[in-house]
């Protein structure tokens, strides 16, 4: 039987118990989406059903992905199901590709009720890699927990989904495509848009493009090296930095989005952006940056590979915030950082007398504060930096912010960073990641650790490593009360604070697709100028020893060392 292309079908399905979105959406191995019958359809239907029919009917939604393997297949299903679920218009990136910051920008521009982003962020792609699907709401930011809990509840009892299986959309042609359907929700429109242009337009209103052009291609121009790591950001980097701001074409590398990111993890850190780090060491370039698969994370490097820790990066932008035209016009209402991020930003907030918010990990916590007009600039230790122009962290925005500061201060990246430490003191920071740990082992380790930390005798206890002695001042499981809506979020990370202000934090990642990832975050503050330029790994070594001893992490997990050190 051939179906009429206008047909709308309701098909039976059976629920899966494991579709609870993590820190940012549902992330699984590609194989899970491919081999489990209706795994994608169930989740997409749960997303649509979580939106009240009155809001959904005739509404606009935005769809885009980071171009990883399975992106196109998923978009086809999302379109077919949007039509069958009463969505009136879908705005989709050209070829189905759109960076996460661009999706956030377009949701706001088109006044959409939300958007669906296909990405597993910095995780590997390809048939053996990861895939992810995430729902952002009308503010352009990741859905709040009340919404993701609703999606999860629906996914646990789902019995059917609606789809127009014969509807075909051409993702490669810009412009509008209209579809007549045989249901009551018609017509259905798909608009394929040039998201790079929309996003570039937003940046033109935030930064001084003439000054940036002078910096990158004027008489005394600096040289930059940007690595898109074969993620979604290549076309944005090319169009904005090279074509518009005049940086030479060879300053942008790995700019063709690939389904498997060229076999590399599109993760901007020392391990995975090692080529960029090596090139920067040659001293040819003044600023280097790498981005993740979906373009929301960034790593900033200076000449000779000088590394800017993300916790420091947001602090430097904060200290120089009024060199950015957007903030000159809009003012600054507050700064924000996630709890495990070092307190470098707090030092700036204190001096500038700007309110500082400490939130759990996850950009959605910042979005709530931004919507309430309380937060303007924020960052996370996990290579995320951004502001209230959108509701996602924004990799390219961070680079333009740094370039603006370089132009204003006429100093090197290293010079700016060292001046900053001298003025505010330095927060040394490191993160140890233990990936693919058995989930039960990880959960049990965290439970035991919490029990031990909450025993009365733990506070006051002293830990000695060589000459160094650290005394526990406070131990807790971080709990956050959202100052906007009063919602309480518990279990956001085990935190040990010592009397000298240094901290050890243990937290389970919410973005892994298999098993568990244990993150150990360590930081300490130093204002003695003679110690300020030391290697963080040397400075923090005693605290690392204590962190591993207290948790017995290696014995319990069977891992002899971390998978990644930042
Ligand atoms: C997402 C969130 C971030 C969060 C990160 C890490 O980023 O948007 O706010 O910091 O997850 O989460 P976890 O430590 O739980 O793995 P992304 O870039 O992965 O989408």
UniProtKB/TrEMBL annotation:
Instruction: Write out the entry's keywords from A to Z.
Output: Cytoplasm, Phosphoprotein
Residue span(s) of domain Alpha-D-phosphohexomutase alpha/beta/alpha: 19-160, 199-303, 311-424
Gene Ontology molecular-function annotations: phosphoglucomutase activity
Write out the annotated subcellular location.
Cytoplasm
Among Pfam families, the record links this protein to: PGM1_C_vert_fung, PGM_PMM_I, PGM_PMM_II, PGM_PMM_III
Q: Does the keyword Cytoplasm apply?
A: yes
The yes or no answer to whether the keyword Phosphoprotein is present is: yes
**A GO BP annotation:** carbohydrate metabolic process
Q: Which PANTHER family match?
A: PHOSPHOGLUCOMUTASE-1, PHOSPHOHEXOMUTASE FAMILY MEMBER
Q: Which family does it belong to?
A: Belongs to the phosphohexose mutase family.
What this protein is called in its record is Phosphoglucomutase 1
- Which organism is this protein's natural source? Esox lucius
Originating gene: PGM1
